[in-house]
Design goal:
Layout lengths: L19 H18 L1 E2 L9 H4 L1 H20 L6 H23 L2 H6 L3 E2 L8 H12 L6 H12 L6 H26 L18 H4 L2 H15 L4 H8 L1 H6 L12 H16 L5 H18 L28 H7 L6 H11 L1 H26 L4 H10 L1 H19 L8
Antiparallel strand pairs: 1-2
Length: 416
C-alpha cells in the first residue's frame, strides 16, 4: 500500500451503527471545517480524476473481478459475500460507470471550481465533498445527510449551480473508487491504489468496515443514487434558487421546472464572462424587478398582481426578456466579438431581414436579365425578362430567407 496524502479534514472516531442524527452532525461539522479551509482558483491547472481519464482501465478491473467471482461460482465453490453482491448487481456497476462518463463531459468538468493549496489541488471542489461523504458514511446512501452536508458547507462557501448538479456524478465516482479499491484488497489485482483515487480513499470505511462490506455498501448506494430526485435536491440547496423565488411578481415559483432552469442557465452564461458570482447576478435581476415593482406601486400586494400586468416586476424579464441587458450591465458582462455582432443584428433584425430579401430578389432578377441578354435578346426584351422575374424572384427570396432564419435563429420558447 502506498503512502496516503493527508485529507482536508480529520475523521472523528465513532462507533459502528452510529444513529443517523449523530452521523448528520458529524457531516455538518466536517463540512463547515472544509468550507473554512478550502480555496478555489481558476488559474490552477485542471487535473482529471483517474476514472474520467482512463475509464477503460476501471472497466477492465471490474471485469477481472467479475470473471474471478464467476469462475469461483462455476466451480461450485462457496462464493464470498462480496462475490455474490458483484455477480448479482454487476449491471448496476456497469451502468454507474457509463453514467459517470456521459454526465461529466470535459467542458463541464473544466467549468467546476478547482481546489488550490490542498492535496486535491486541481481537482473539483465538489469531488472533495463527495469524498468526505463516502469516507465518513458507514451505511447506505442518505440524501438527507448529503443535503445537511451541503447546507453546512454553504454557510461559509456557496457552491455553484454546476457543482450542485455534479453531486450525483461525483458520488458515483467516489463509490466506484471505493468499490474498485475494496476489490483490489480482496483479489490479486495488483493495482497501485494511487491509480484508482487521488487520495487512495476508503479512509473512513476501512475504519469500521471490511472490504466485503464495502462492496455491498457501494453497490447498494449506487442503486439508491439512481432513485433520487436530484432536481428537488438542487432547488432545495441552491442559493440562486432561493434568491429568484423572492420574485416580486410571485410568478417564478409557480413556473414549471424547465422555465426556472432556463432562467438559471442564463445566470450561468452571464457569470462565464463577468466578474460577478451567480448569487450576485441573481441578486441584480431581483433588485431590478423590485425597483420596477416599487416604481409601479406593486409593493405589498405583489401576490395579487398578474405577471402580464407588469412584466418588468418579474425576475424573468431581466434574464430572458428585454431587461437582460440591464442585468448584464450590472454584472459587467464582457461581450465576445460574435455576441456583439449578433446583438447588433438583432437590434436591426427588420433591416437585415428586408435587406436580405431585397438582395436575393435583385440577384435573381439580374440572373434572369443576364440569361435573356446571353440568349440574344434586345434591351427591351432584357428589361421585360427582369420585370417578369420580379414576382417569382421575390417569392423565392422570401422563402430562402425564411428557411435560413429558421435554421440559424433558435426558436423563442415562451416561459410557462
Amino acid at each position: 500500500m502506498t503512502d496516503q496524502p493527508d485529507l482536508d479534514y480529520t475523521i472523528p472516531t465513532a462507533e459502528p451503527g452510529v444513529p443517523a442524527a449523530a452521523a448528520e452532525n458529524i457531516f455538518v461539522a466536517l463540512a463547515r471545517e472544509l468550507a473554512l479551509t478550502h480555496k478555489v482558483a481558476a488559474s490552477v491547472p485542471i487535473r482529471r480524476l483517474p476514472i474520467l481519464q482512463t475509464p477503460e482501465f476501471f472497466e477492465s478491473l471490474l471485469q477481472r473481478a467479475y470473471q474471478h467471482f464467476s469462475q469461483v461460482a462455476e466451480g461450485e465453490l462457496i462464493a464470498s459475500y462480496a462475490g455474490e453482491w458483484l455477480l448479482d448487481n454487476y449491471y448496476i456497476v456497469q451502468q454507474a460507470l457509463r453514467q459517470v462518463q456521459e454526465d461529466m463531459p470535459r467542458r463541464y468538468y473544466a467549468e467546476l471550481p478547482r481546489l488550490a493549496s490542498t492535496d486535491l489541488q486541481g481537482y473539483p471542489r465538489i469531488y472533495s465533498l463527495a469524498r468526505l461523504y463516502t469516507d465518513v458514511a458507514d451505511r447506505q446512501f442518505s440524501l438527507q445527510q448529503v443535503s445537511a452536508l451541503t447546507e453546512a458547507y454553504q454557510e461559509h462557501a456557496p457552491l455553484t449551480m454546476g457543482e450542485l448538479w455534479a453531486w450525483p456524478v461525483m458520488m458515483r465516482v467516489s463509490m466506484l473508487e471505493n468499490l474498485v479499491l475494496a476489490l483490489n484488497d480482496l483479489l490479486p489485482l495488483g493495482i497501485d491504489p494511487g491509480t484508482i483515487a487521488p487520495t487512495a480513499a476508503m479512509v473512513g470505511q476501512t475504519r469500521d468496515s471490511s472490504a466485503e462490506n464495502i462492496v455491498a455498501h457501494c453497490i447498494t448506494s449506487l442503486r439508491q443514487l439512481g432513485t433520487q430526485d436530484w432536481a428537488v435536491f438542487f432547488e432545495a440547496t441552491s442559493r440562486v434558487e432561493t434568491i429568484l423565488r423572492r420574485d416580486p411578481s410571485a410568478t417564478y415559483a409557480q413556473m414549471d421546472f424547465d422555465t426556472r432552469n432556463r432562467y438559471r442557465q442564463v445566470i450561468e452564461t452571464i457569470v462565464r464572462r463577468a466578474p460577478a458570482s451567480e448569487e450576485q447576478v441573481a441578486q441584480a435581476a431581483l433588485a431590478l424587478a423590485q425597483e420596477a415593482a416599487e416604481r409601479n406601486g406593486y409593493v405589498g400586494r405583489h401576490v395579487d398582481v398578474p405577471f402580464l400586468e407588469d412584466p418588468t416586476a418579474h425576475v424573468g424579464y431581466y434574464l430572458i426578456g428585454p431587461g437582460r441587458r440591464q442585468t448584464e450591465t450590472a454584472a459587467r458582462y464582457q461581450f465576445s466579438w460574435g455576441e456583439s455582432l449578433a446583438r447588433r443584428i438583432a437590434d436591426r433584425r427588420l433591416f437585415f431581414y428586408l435587406g436580405d430579401v431585397l438582395l436575393l430578389t435583385l440577384a435573381i432578377i439580374l440572373l434572369a436579365a443576364r440569361y435573356a441578354a446571353l440568349s440574344g435578346g434586345s434591351l427591351i426584351q432584357v428589361v421585360v425578362a427582369g420585370l417578369l422575374a420580379l414576382l417569382p424572384a421575390s417569392a423565392v427570396a422570401v422563402n430562402l430567407v425564411n428557411w435560413a432564419v429558421s435554421r440559424l435563429v433558435a426558436p423563442h420558447v415562451l416561459p410557462k
